[in-house]
Amino acid sequence: MNLKAGSGDREHTETSSVYPPSEEPGRQNYFIEKCREHVSALAVSRGRSLTFHITTLGCQMNAKDSEKLKGILLQIGYRWTDSEDADFVLYNTCTVRENANLKVYGHLGYLQSLKKKQPDKIIALCGCMMQEADVPEKIRKNYRLVDIVFGTYNIYKLAEILWERFFTGKPVVEIWDDAGQIVEELPSYREFPFKSGVNITYGCDNFCSYCIVPYVRGRERSRKPEHILAEVQKLADEGVVEIMLLGQNVNSYGKNLPTPVTFADLLRRVERVDGIRRIRFMTPHPKDFSEEVLAVMRDSEKICHQIHLPLQSGSTRILKKMNRRYTKEQYLALVDTIREYLPDASISTDIIVGFPGETEEDFEETLDVVRQVRYDAAYTFLYSKRSGTPAAKMEQVPEAVAGERFGRLLDTIHENQADAIRKNLGRTLDVLVEKENDVHGYLTGRLENNTLVHFPGDTGLIGKIVPVKLTQEKGFYYFGETVS
Ligand code: SAH
Ligand code: SF4
Ligand code: F3S
Predict the structure, then answer these.
(1) How far is the CA of 219 from the centre of ligand 2 (A)?
(2) Phi, psi of 211 (to 5 degrees)
(3) Tens digit of pLDDT for each residue in 396-447?
(4) Ligand 2 proximity of 285 Cβ (cutoff 6 Å)
(5) Could you give the 3-state DSSP secondary structure of residue 296?
(6) What pTM does this model have?
(7) Cβ distance 463 to 448 under 8 Å?
């Protein structure tokens, strides 16, 4: 196929030239236009619009990537549909735990059966799982009806890859080994009109010994503060009131920029964007959490007093094997400092149960931290062996032992969570209204600490921040009523 890059003096934004421009984002805009013409011709011949569906697995990074993919597909002229009967079906995969992979393989069988009935259907896979060494090959061999496979580093090239599929009629597999440039200014579609994630870093340099993310997302890259601020300003201009700054380790933001910037500096600058009323961030790493960030949070009108502080294990011995680079005592001291600066902060966490070599004593240390911190919420995971990571070669804990510990951990967390939720019962707090509830006449929104609140109200309030009196607690969420 002829996809020669154009000469350097060609106008980058030109879309009707014979050769694609070499520079981004002009090059992708060129392919968006080519695909658009093709999709529009297909729509005429089929007598209907073409549709697409994206399934997103995994974390907020993938959710944000899917918004970018959706933006490109809408621009190409596909229409969104909730059904997998769509003409273009895309799976944005996760591989952080093995069951995420199993889910995808399980589903591919079903998609292939759909394709037998709809031969023109395009099946595409992208995301973290595709970056694993043996996965694209396994898919090529065992799932021959898959049309497109790409990875995490080239999602911005969706239009170019799709064009190649249209042009050649053959499967396209394009996986990069590491990140190229960060391409800004491509279309993106927001799931919510009033809140949005904003990437600040990509990748991770921490290499926690159990974790596959650094291998599938590459080394840490920070976006330039000007680019982040321009995006936040644009979002504010479009009516967004809440943003979540996204990265695998947000508080190491900016260290590798040509002119280094700290996460605290970035927060201060984001705070100054008019129109934004709530700022969140995810995920900070305990080893890099500076007091300066806490001071900025204390003095801020907008940064939510909500901190997700992954513990992973409460045992210093296991933390060392995990390569987390903090001890139980350092973690607890950080929680004390957080509470000094922000007495009302809600703190949530991630915990892994059954990491290789975890003994009953190690696990008791985890329960001890859970009891001391009294988390508002905790996400718990059974350790999952990821090949290629150092922990995969360590001695594994029997499944039954890990399962039993997991149950005990959940019980302890639920006791704490119930206490935490009772704290705010009867108070009137601000709620950002997100959507209509399934129960007629009710709305659903979130407190600053991210807890869900359901209350009677008019749909005109969606996207607004309103005071709500919390009248009943239900363990994980509240019922409330608006106050005037
Ligand atoms: N960068 C974030 C988390 C990214 S992955 C951080 O460091 O906190 C999200 C969560 O998945 C992790 O916090 C961890 O608890 C869990 N996780 C990662 N690898 C895992 C594995 N191999 N088995 C089980 N849980 C895992
Ligand atoms: Fe994985 Fe650790 Fe990086 Fe989080 S900080 S993404 S757990 S390696
Ligand atoms: Fe999964 Fe990739 Fe996120 S592995 S957790 S989707 S960074």
Answers:
(1) 11
(2) -105, 135
(3) 999 999 999 999 999 999 888 888 889 899 999 999 999 999 999 999 999 9
(4) yes
(5) helix
(6) 0.93
(7) no
